[in-house]
Amino acid sequence: MINGAMTSGTLALLALGFTLIYGVADVVNMSHGALYMLGAYLFFVFTTIFPIDLLLAFVLAVVLTGIIGATIYRLAIHPVVDDLLASLVITVGVTIIIQELTIISFGSYRRPVPSFAQGFLTLAGVKVPNATFLAFVVSLILFGGLWTFLAKVKIGKAMRAVAQDHEVAMLMGINTERLYMLTMGISATLAALAGVLITASTTRLAYPHMWDTPLYLSFSIVILGGLGSVKGTLVGALIVGYAEEIFVTLSSLYLPGGGFLKGVVAMAIMMTVLILRPKGLFGKRIEMEE
């Protein structure tokens, strides 16, 4: 259960960027997983190819990914932002382009990503890697920070206003296009944060096809919690994280090798929710209830 909680924190951060851009701009960003991968690769570049301090490498990786995300919105998504199908296709194309550029630049080999911390600590009798615990704590702090930003800061309130009613927000003088680009930048930053934290605390490897698992996990979490719901993202991540942990534990007892099928859990949850409750648990825009 402790490991499930640790997993849920970073999964929530991963899915938050996905639901944020949908809630504000109605964009289903299929390149979210590719931005996750890009963050991990930039961290690899800044720690291995051009070695600098780990913390500085972390900051540079997420900031650059955020800038790239905003640029992708301006150049590729902005012209078709009002067409859901076109934006969906465009972001799929962006994913393929990022993947192929990554292969051209670094090859298809797995690249080592350094960990932020070594060793273990014991929580409630369970040994937890220090890197995993650190990723969990940082994820919760960032999640809380964004929650506060949306609830208290002027730009965050503007995002909520646009999410609730696009036309009224425009009449109130909000520059929605600029806000969409900013939201995409924040979404990409969150994807990169999750990419670095999860990769550095688990596999410690970056590779070109690592984007697919984060993408379907993001889908599963936001569909379970409700597309566009920040609160639902956190609840959905908790459910998916615990469900995967329970599945791995039980399969190790009754189904040798079944732990490799844990990805099925997220997809099964997503399909069940789509059938029984298509709007998810909190199927609203970015509501940020007080």
Which helices and strands occur, and which strands form pairs?
Elements: H1 2-25, H2 32-49, H3 54-77, H4 84-106, E1 111-112, E2 120-123, E3 126-129, H5 130-152, H6 154-164, H7 166-171, H8 176-201, E4 205-206, H9 212-225, H10 230-254, H11 263-276
N-to-C CA distance: 29 Å
Helix content: over 70%
How many strands, what sense, and barrel or not for the largest sheet?
Answer: 2 strands, antiparallel
Estimated radius of gyration: 19 Å
Model description:
The structure is a single chain. This protein has 290 residues and is mainly alpha-helical. The protein has a domain of 199 residues. Helices cover 72% and strands 4% of the residues. A two-stranded antiparallel sheet has the order 1-4. A two-stranded antiparallel ribbon has the order 2-3. Helix 2 packs parallel to helix 4. The longest helix is centred in the middle third of the chain and has 26 residues. The protein starts with a helix and ends in a 14-residue tail after the last helix. 48% of the residues are buried. The C terminus is likely disordered.
Key words describing this protein structure:
disordered C terminus, single chain, 11 helices, 4 strands, two-stranded antiparallel sheet, mainly alpha, 290 residues
What's a concise summary of this model?
With 290 residues, the chain is mostly helical. It contains 11 helices and 4 strands.
